[in-house]
Amino acid sequence: MTSKQLDSIVIFGDSITQGGWEPGGFAQKLAYVYARRLDVVNRGLSGYNTEWGLPVFEQIVAKTSEQPHVPTMRLLTIWFGANDACLQQSPQYVSLDRFKANLTRMVTMLRDEKSEWYHPPERTKILFISPPPIDADARAADLASRNPPLAPDRTWDNTKAYADAVKEVGKELSVPVADAWTAIWDAAGHKAENLKQFLPDGLHLNAASYSLVYDLILEAIAQNWPELHYSKLPFVFAPWNEVEWEGDPRPSLQARHN
Amino acid sequence: MTSKQLDSIVIFGDSITQGGWEPGGFAQKLAYVYARRLDVVNRGLSGYNTEWGLPVFEQIVAKTSEQPHVPTMRLLTIWFGANDACLQQSPQYVSLDRFKANLTRMVTMLRDEKSEWYHPPERTKILFISPPPIDADARAADLASRNPPLAPDRTWDNTKAYADAVKEVGKELSVPVADAWTAIWDAAGHKAENLKQFLPDGLHLNAASYSLVYDLILEAIAQNWPELHYSKLPFVFAPWNEVEWEGDPRPSLQARHN
Questions:
Q1: Domain span holding position B76
Q2: d(CA B200, CA A77)
Q3: Is A113 exposed, middle or buried (0-12, 13-18, 19+ CB in 10 A)?
Q4: Whether B109 contacts B175, CB under 8 Å
Q5: What number of other Cβ atoms are within 10 A of residue B1's Cβ?
Q6: Residues in chain A closer than 8 A to B250 (CB atoms)
Q7: What is the predicted pLDDT for the residue at A3?
Q8: Contact B2/A72, CB-based, under 8 Å?
Q9: Is residue B198 assigned to a domain?
Q10: Tens-place pLDDT, residues A190-208
Q11: Which residue of chain A is at minimal alpha-carbon distance from B8?
Q12: ipTM for this prediction
């Protein structure tokens, strides 16, 4: 089947992106408002860090030779750091420098005109999302409850450093950042004990925190690429009350590129 | 961007399909369980009947010449009738015979080996979904509350006739049917006054009724095409604990067709 008539929003990241399909998740909320305008393609990979994400990214992003055949990626969100920020004991750990280099590589893959994955910036927008804060106590309790029990694997300070790194790289590369870390930390009143309202297991988001991130994404779209806001994109196939029902309806039912 | 690594489930129909992206909607629930296995592509068109759906169907379904370039449609759900069943005063009305002919045409487009839209049955499965019962009183009240007020446009008997027609055509063409009409009517204890628990405005589904339909779809998959059940489909990109992190991770990160 081809969905070439509809372009796409691709959301790429770890379990926090994969979980975006939960009720109230940011993928579900985006898919709902962008229905008939842009398809939401979820490329969230639970447990992945940027080191493992890169080889997948090279496969899911169309090369210039493939681009004529596939839907245009109008917006790409890149949301990593929650796993890269694990302590060094974990195979998921990626050093801060390597994390920044991997994020930079993902962007240059699309932005370098000589790249085989080149996507013209006027056609494909890129948005970073910073990893959420960690509720280290809740996460440690969750890990301790596993069988066999697992040692704590993340700290608040460390995850903050990776969130700050996303903002640094975004600034260097002029990639807007939806700052999930700050939005959730602010909503928690800068109190770790309040994080459980937004991160039930200390690490993953719920409808309340996904809603904050969804709002950040729509604000970033409205500020940077207002033409991509769902309210500005017409339906690709006509609203039913615009269908020509007295004569031949076919001309009024042709896909209209938005 | 290409999502060729992931095949798709395409859901095609009217507003009841378009609304599947609501929290608890059948699209959201399918996307959640099929994450990393199959993409859910929502081609629901609010207000459409089969007469207007057909010319759109011809555009969204890949022709044989396009199929090598696009993700394979592994499952297609066709869910129409709620609008076709309008009374004749409405431009949305489609006669029962024409409704059956249009559903038949959608199937033969894919199944006729001489069709330019031919999809081999071993590769693409088709599932009909019957339209839900109508709560005519609630619908009439909703229409009367509009500005300007609108006259009643649907009856319980008429919608039942279109639901029965879906089952007839399914039987004729050997296309399985997820019988939403019966599931919702049974859940309402065969009492129109109980339908409001499942059809808040008399016509559209809520999380309770979408959940019934989601269960019917998974049952139909398990019975007819067990290999397509999400529990039988491996992740296209490896679970993180299967990633080779000591040596070169790339070989373990290649897309695996499922």
A1: 8-253
A2: 35
A3: exposed
A4: no
A5: 25
A6: 55
A7: 55
A8: no
A9: yes
A10: 999 999 999 999 999 999 9
A11: A1
A12: 0.97
* Closest residue in A to B123 (Cα–Cα): A1
Closest CA to A141 of A153, A156, A131, A132: A153
Cα A53 to Cα A250: distance, rounded to the nearest angstrom: 44
User: Please, are residues B84 and B162 in contact by the beta-carbon 8 Å criterion?
Assistant: yes
Q: How many helices (H) and strands (E) does chain B have?
A: 8, 5
Render pLDDT for A227-243 as a digit per residue (tens, 0 to 9).
999 999 999 999 999 99
For the CA atoms of A84, A85, A89, A90, the dihedral, rounded to the nearest 10 degrees, stands at: -40
Structure tokens at B2: 């290409």
Q: How far is the C-alpha of A223 from the C-alpha of A210, rounded, in Å? A: 20
Q: What is the pTM of this model?
A: 0.97
Tokens of A242: 């615009």
Residue A258 lies inside a defined structural domain of this protein: no
CATH number of the domain where residue B143 is located = 3.40.50.1110
Token pair for residue B37?
């296995």
**Closest partner residue to B253 among A23, A56, A61, by Cβ?**
A56
Count Cβ atoms within 10 A of the Cβ of residue B191 and give its class: 0-12 exposed, 13-18 middle, 19 or more buried: exposed
Minimum distance, in Å, between the CA of residue B47 and any CA atom of chain A: 5
Residue A167 forms part of a structural domain: yes
Give dist(CA B81, CA B139) in Å, integer.
Answer: 16
Strands (E) in chain A, as ranges, are 7-13, 38-44, 73-79, 125-129, 177-178
| Tally of structural domains, chain A | 1
Nearest to A178 by CA among A222, A216, A122, A230: A216
- What count of other Cβ atoms lies within 10 Å of the Cβ of residue A73? 26
Q: Is residue B139 part of a domain?
A: yes
